[in-house]
Design a protein that fits this description.
Elements (H helix, E strand, L loop, with lengths): L3 E4 L6 H9 L3 E4 L12 E6 L2 E6 L2 E2 L12 E2 L5 H13 L5 H8 L10 H16 L6 E3 L10 E2 L14 E4 L8 H4 L7 H8 L3 H7 L1 E4 L2
Parallel strand pairs: 1-2, 1-8, 2-7
Antiparallel strand pairs: 3-4, 5-6, 9-10
């Protein structure tokens, strides 16, 4: 696949990661004006009660004109503990949670001042968990207005089934609460990793992606 331009993402959705691993080159936008209520600071996981959205509280230091690279995390709230406890509750019975727990847990015990730093460390750990030897990424030096990349910066949104300019075919895989909730596609990548383990990368490579021009 041709190079893609993506937004930053907190524990990205499977669709975001599928584009990342299937693209020939990945660039991540950090100089855009930060939009609210996106996957840049939130993710969806599956629980016994259905989908749970985990949101990193942030501060826009320059108001509505704050760039993504300048977005600070509001650490006055104990969000990391709440997120990690929610992840444990959701996935402690999944096949591979214990195998990957030690990779992820330290990042929820560490304080981050900027959202980009948190998301970058998480992405590096996810790449390590996937054992992808080809997935590399870089950040934009300025806001892209004309690019040779497929521009997917605004193609992902937490609203279910909202995908702008793209479509997918997600193969079913066994999920922890599938018996009660049914199969839920395109959750956070951690759902795939905790349930499929070493087969997660192969799954991402099999996801059928279509960019609608």
């Amino acid at each position: 696949m041709e190079p893609v331009l993506l937004s930053v993402a907190y524990l990205p959705p499977i669709s975001w990661m599928a584009f990342a691993v299937q693209s020939s080159s990945l660039e991540i936008e950090i100089h855009e004006t930060y939009p609210k209520q996106t996957f840049r600071n939130r993710c969806n996981i599956a629980t016994s009660s259905g989908i749970l959205s985990l949101t990193v509280p942030v501060k826009r230091v320059n108001g509505n004109h704050t760039k993504t690279c300048d977005i600070q995390i509001d650490n006055s709230k104990n969000w990391q503990l709440m997120h990690w406890r929610s992840i444990i509750t959701a996935y402690n019975k999944s096949p591979y949670f214990l195998f990957y727990r030690d990779l992820l847990e330290p990042l929820f015990l560490k304080k981050y001042d900027f959202l980009v730093d948190l998301n970058t460390e998480l992405l590096n750990v996810l790449i390590k968990a996937l054992k992808s030897n080809t997935l590399e990424f870089s950040f934009t030096a300025e806001y892209h207005t004309n690019s040779n990349f497929h521009d997917l910066r605004n193609s992902f949104h937490p609203k279910i089934n909202f995908k702008q300019g793209i479509s997918f075919n997600f193969p079913r895989y066994m999920q922890t609460f599938e018996e009660n909730q049914g199969f839920i596609p395109d959750l956070s990548i951690i759902d795939l990793i905790f349930n499929l383990g070493p087969d997660a990368l192969s799954y991402l490579l099999k996801v059928e992606l279509l960019i609608r021009e």
